[in-house]
Amino acid sequence: GESVGLHLPTLSVQEGDNSIINCAYSNSASDYFIWYKQESGKGPQFIIDIRSNMDKRQGQRVTVLLNKTVKHLSLQIAATQPGDSAVYFCAENHNYGQNFVFGPGTRLSVLP
Amino acid sequence: NAGVTQTPKFQVLKTGQSMTLQCAQDMNHNSMYWYRQDPGMGLRLIYYSASEGTTDKGEVPNGYNVSRLNKREFSLRLESAAPSQTSVYFCASSRGTYNEQFFGPGTRLTVL
User: Fold this and answer.
1) A97 and B58 in contact by Cβ < 8 A?
2) Do A49 and B100 count as a contact with CB atoms less than 8 A apart?
3) Angle at CA B16, nearest 5°, toward B10 and B22?
4) Which end of chain B has fewer CB within 10 Å, C or N?
């Protein structure tokens, strides 16, 4: 079946450290991936995206890595800050349309 | 720009009652979506509208209907609410198929 999942449901990191959030996907036809951040009581917010013709994409303090061989996606956050505390979702699109499939999410807690 | 707006923010219904959730976007986006999010889970697509005048079923369409009223507005209707429809509902919009989705703040719905 098609699924997007996360290896770690919760992640706690020290402020200033780097965070790595992982995501596995099972559909090799998936060709577009997005990471979203959701703060408590709010809607998801776009962080970064990557297409399957890329292995890496960088944004401000965030990097997404895509390993198509093992169908794995990761989000790296540099110098994690208290404001990064949230639930992070990966989502994949593989139908040349609108059917994004979301993973269950990873909660990131930043310790002072 | 307000982005994506949703009304109401909260709603309590009795089993069998009907209601319509409203969504509007002011970003001139072509595509709009309705998701539901249950506790501890990711988002599941209910219905989407790739462009004005079209609607399609997502992963969990049963018990719902939608209307793309115009390019700005996309409503979700529960004809006969059931306790299983207790959830947080998010509306989103995007410029096109392979573009980031912008989410509204959500509607928290409880069906007794």
Assistant:
1) no
2) yes
3) 40
4) N
With a CB cutoff of 8 Å and minimum separation 6, the contacts of A74 are A20, A21, A22, A23, A64, A65
Nearest residue to A95 (alpha-carbon basis) of B106, B8, B59, B86: B59
- Report strand pairing: B43-49 vs B56-57: antiparallel
Residue B8's φ and ψ, nearest 5 degrees, are -80, 175
Task: State the pLDDT confidence band at A7, using cuts at 50, 70 and 90.
Answer: very low
DSSP string, chain B: ---EEEE-SEEEE-TT--EEEEEEESS--SEEEEEEE-TT--EEEEEEESSTT--EE-S--TTEEEEE-SSSBEEEEESS--GGG-EEEEEEEESSTTSPPEE---EEEEE-
| CB contacts, 8 Å: B105 with chain A | 42-43
Residues B12-40 pLDDT 10s = 999 999 999 999 999 999 999 999 998 77
**Predicted local confidence at residue B78, as pLDDT:** 97
Mention every residue, 6+ apart, whose C-beta is less than 8 A from residue B85: B36, B63, B78, B109, B111
Q: Is A87 helix (H, G, I), strand (E, B) or coil?
A: strand
